[in-house]
Amino acid sequence: MATLGVRYRDDPPPGSDSWKREASVVLGGGMALVRAMYTGQLTSGVVVMGVAGSGKSTLGAAIAERMGWPMIEGDDFHSDENKARMHSGVPLSDADREGWLRSLGRELQLHPGGAVLTCSALKRRYRDLLRDASPGLAFVFLDISEDEAAWRVSARGQHFFPPELLQSQFAALEPPLDEPGVLRLDAGLSLKALAEQTVAWLNANSGQAA
């Protein structure tokens, strides 16, 4: 059975309510780095973010079940025009994404008790738009290599997102380093480990219990 442990460095000074923490997660003898920025209470739900193939939907469903929150599948809110562009191998522009992101923000507002949203959220401006719609929103960033993401996308079969678009996502990606309310996880960890780490982090920063 895999063992799970967390080793922390850079613990917060006494009385501090905002800090960075770095943890080494030990799983079955392996080591993975988890970084999170803590800045007070995370109160309105979580976005599972990352490029295509990082495992957003799978982890999102696991988190939603454990937290008792509804899940919002971001891909379901793309317009027919956006889906047609992607299916044709045309990357979406910022303008193409704006309406989609605003619709996701409105959907989050319908669930003030918390929700799990899956969304690529590639750029800082995209994440800030969601934060503006839902203050206190947390983000879980599934970090994955381009080779591994390409293999996963190719293996998943029918989907309106073709593997050829993956390179454009990595080019557009602005990793959420040093942003508030972000947990960065290695997408290669097991689903159980990813879900446990996420739920523990959310509970520690929201006061909720799963």
**CATH topological fold name:** Rossmann fold
Quantity of strands, as a count: 8
SSE-based structural type: alpha/beta
**What would you give as the CATH superfamily?**
P-loop containing nucleotide triphosphate hydrolases
The best one-word shape is globular
User: Over all CA atoms, what is the radius of gyration?
Assistant: 17 Å
User: What is the count of structural domains?
Assistant: 1
Distance between the termini: 23 Å
**What percent of residues are in strands?**
15-25%
- Mind summarizing the main beta sheet? 8 strands, mixed
Text of the CATH class: Alpha Beta
Residue ranges: pLDDT <50 for 5 or more in a row?
1-39
Tally of separate helices: 7
Tell me which CATH architecture applies here: 3-Layer(aba) Sandwich
The H/E string reads EEEEHEHHEHEHHEH
Question: What is the mean predicted local confidence, pLDDT?
Answer: 80
Fraction of residues in H or I helices? 25-40%
Enumerate the strands of the largest sheet in spatial order, edge to edge or round the barrel. 1-2-3-8-7-4-6-5
